[in-house]
Design brief:
Number of helices: 18
Number of strands: 15
CATH topology of the largest domain: Rossmann fold
Structural class: alpha/beta
Number of domains: 3
CATH superfamily of the largest domain: Glycogen Phosphorylase B
Low-confidence stretches: none
CATH class of the largest domain: Alpha Beta
Length: 461
């Protein structure tokens, strides 16, 4: 069997190529990696699995005006339609576009106008998408990808990311050649945000909840095309070979083994207040008695290369220790920030040895939940920042998957920081069963069987 992995950016690499998915495939399967990433990345994946993988360089799709207008109009239409359907106005925040030049503003105004018209009827949205896919098939890039796939002749093409523009054309080319296609929805929050650009024959989903979301937001996709498998990104936590001894981990990052550790996990630059929240946290912890004061272990978002935390770290060098993500950067753009196995190992040990995590609505709450560690969600705003709100962020649609607010500790004001930290680290907390309820909604359990489920579907298309 010849299996082609379509990896249009760095983020899909970690979950599907560093996990055990490749090991679960038939031993005699021929593996192809169609990707924009350089050959040395493929070599690292080969070393992890001790299996030969053929690297095929993927070119970049240059989007024409008409195609971009259709795509953005569809996005706007779906966001408006989804907003009405689930009665959540925060969905429209995902329409934010950089609109500096007047021509850019005019373009997005036109896309919004067309999208508004289409949003009045779901049939119009579907027709607009059919027109968009017809446009993709008329491009020179589509014909180029047809030629590539004819040479590769895969038995199945697996797309690791559903948002990629390049990937959407490659998958369309595969479908035109009647090559079976299987796609992953990358993240638990993507479906309400109109981010299903790559349209495969079948989809592997995180959970039954995500399957219900597909029925809500994409009713034209038949249930028979949807498979609940879980996601491999949590499997690493069950791999003993990735774990460090506690003493070794504390020594490596300059931590005091006699004190609790609170992980502050940063978000990307669309969250503009993270360094202010870190400063608030550090200031509040310094007011706590030293005997109960935890250390802060900072893990910034891998694609945040701004250095914005550095002034805070320099003010509190004894309190804050930094475990920077061990990603590699190739060329420009966040698509070429690539995770490494060393970083996976680091993240496993941060979750294993830290006692709790604090952030603004991050998936890290689920990473820590694997080890039954509590999460603190920041739920207050910074007065100096008027164009963004943590309180609004926590009202996004994907947080409605939370069966009870007790699944996390809510930090509702700067004045509550010390009390919330004490509760997370020393209790009392709701029972483990209550706190794990949300995680069981978000990702199918047992978590460590996700790769096996995906491999089974991939080899039976």
């Amino acid at each position: 069997m010849r299996i082609c992995f379509l990896v249009p950016d760095g983020v899909g690499l970690r979950n599907y190529l560093y996990s055990s998915l490749i090991d679960r495939l038939p031993k005699d399967a021929e593996l192809i990696l169609l990707t924009v990433l350089p050959p040395e990345v493929v070599q690292e994946v080969q070393q992890v699995h001790q299996k030969e993988i053929r690297h095929v360089a993927m070119t970049t799709y240059r989007e024409a005006f008409w195609g971009k207008l259709l795509k953005e109009s569809i996005t706007y239409a779906r966001l408006r339609y989804n907003t009405r359907k689930v009665d959540n106005s925060t969905i429209m925040i995902n329409w934010t576009r950089k609109q500096y030049a007047w021509l850019t503003r005019l373009f997005f105004a036109l896309a919004a106008l067309v999208g508004w018209w289409a949003s009045l009827s779901y049939r119009r949205i579907v027709r607009l998408e059919k027109r968009y896919r017809k446009h993709l098939r008329s491009t020179a890039y589509f014909k180029e990808q047809q030629s590539v796939l004819r040479q590769l002749q895969p038995d199945v093409l697996f797309s690791t990311h559903q948002r990629s523009l390049d990937g959407s054309v490659v998958v369309e080319a595969a479908r035109s050649l009647e090559i079976p296609t299987l796609g992953a929805v990358y993240s638990w929050d993507n479906l309400p945000k109109a981010r299903l650009l790559v349209r495969t024959d079948r989809y592997v989903l995180w959970s039954e909840f995500m399957k219900q979301e597909m029925a809500t937001y994409y009713p034209e996709i038949a249930e028979t095309r949807l498979f609940v498998t879980g996601t491999p990104q949590f499997e690493f936590y069950f791999n003993p070979s990735l774990r460090q001894e506690r003493g070794d981990f504390f020594a490596e990052w300059g931590l005091d083994p006699n004190k609790k550790v609170l992980c502050f996990s940063g978000n990307d630059m669309t969250f503009p207040c993270d360094e202010l929240y870190l400063s608030d946290l550090a200031e509040a912890l310094m007011q706590m008695p030293e005997a109960e004061r935890p250390q802060i272990l900072l893990r910034r978002c891998p694609v945040d290369l701004s250095g914005r935390f550095q002034p805070v770290v320099e003010r509190y060098p004894d309190l804050i220790k930094v475990s920077d993500p061990l990603w590699k950067k190739y060329r420009g753009g966040w698509d070429f920030n690539v995770p490494t196995l060393d970083d996976i190992r680091l993240l496993v040990n941060v979750a294993l040895h830290a006692d709790a995590v604090i952030n603004v609505g991050s998936t890290m709450a689920h990473d820590f939940a694997v080890y039954d560690k509590p999460a603190i969600y920041i739920n207050y705003d910074q007065p100096a920042i008027t164009h963004w709100s943590a309180v609004v962020n926590n009202q996004y649609q994907h947080f409605r998957s939370m069966p009870t607010r007790d699944c996390v500790v809510w930090l509702n004001s700067r004045a509550e920081i010390a009390d919330c930290v004490r509760r997370a680290l020393y209790g009392p907390l709701p029972s483990a069963e209550v706190r794990s309820r949300w995680f069981r909604v978000v990702a199918l359990h047992p978590l460590e069987e996700a790769s096996e489920r995906i491999a089974r579907i991939m080899t039976t298309v």
